[in-house]
Design a protein that fits this description.
The protein is 25% helix and 31% strand. The chain is of the alpha+beta class. The protein has 2 domains: 32 residues; 143 residues, no CATH class. The chain has a 5-stranded antiparallel sheet, with no helix packed on it. The chain has a 4-stranded antiparallel sheet with strand order 1-2-3-4, with helices on one face.
Length: 233
């Protein structure tokens, strides 16, 4: 057997060698693409998800009337319910029967709530604060022309105090939070946090505060209210 000699080794031109080297390194540096696996979602699963979303929307919509005023306002809904407007109708009817007051169209509800069958409505009448309490057939309204009884040197003042324990009035702009405190006996003090809306406050203490009890606004220090104006029935 005769072996043929190998041909002499040929050198690549430098420019070809450089081009091949660059191509090799570029291929090594390129990240590998992840394999794409198609995901198929069953039609039944999509239908179930849509049903859950729709059902949740229905439940939420059904509970909107019971949502707090702040939540309803953030959703662009009117925080004043038809019942609050009806309560204000009763207040207007009661007070207009005994004295001259602005037309009903100028009465605007600020807030209204019902606790244990007693509805308390804070309103503005031609810009003036007015408070009304309805319990059964009884209607009690604050005097629209009365001056607030000041709490010490502050501009917080009480305009309304009832035998059902409601105290209401105007709040000092700097008072973002405070309590109402009533001394009903030498050894008995009742307090409740004031609920604030549009510069007005309402507090429910659950004891008779109409018959000259000592009433204080507590914000760090205690400030005693002056004589609270009488109500209209």
């Amino acid at each position: 057997m005769i072996r043929q000699p190998m041909p002499p080794r040929r050198e690549l031109p430098p420019e070809v060698r450089d081009r091949l080297r660059r191509r090799l390194w570029s291929e090594l540096d390129r990240p590998r693409e992840a394999r794409r696996v198609p995901v198929r979602v069953p039609v039944a699963a999509i239908a179930c998800a849509a049903t859950v979303v729709v059902a949740g929307s229905v439940v939420f919509a059904q509970n909107v009337p019971q949502a707090p005023d702040q939540m309803r306002a953030s959703m662009g809904l009117d925080p004043v319910s038809a019942d609050a407007s009806g309560q204000l109708d009763r207040c207007y009817t009661a007070v207009s029967a005994v004295r001259e007051v602005p037309d009903r169209a100028q009465w605007r509800v600020v807030r209204s709530s019902v606790v244990a069958g007693v509805a308390v409505t804070a309103a503005r009448v031609a810009g003036k604060p007015v408070f009304c309490e309805t319990a059964g057939t009884a209607v009690t309204v604050s005097d629209p022309d009365a001056a607030p009884a000041p709490a010490g040197p502050s501009s917080t003042g009480a305009l309304f105090a009832t035998s059902n324990g409601t105290i209401a009035g105007v709040a000092d702009p700097g008072w973002q939070r405070f309590e109402l405190r009533v001394t009903v006996a030498p050894d008995r003090v009742v307090s409740a946090e004031a609920e604030l809306s549009d510069g007005l406050f309402v507090a429910r203490l659950g004891v008779d505060v109409e018959t000259g009890a000592k009433v204080e606004a507590v914000r760090g220090s205690a400030y005693t209210f002056g004589p609270i104006p009488p109500v209209i029935r």
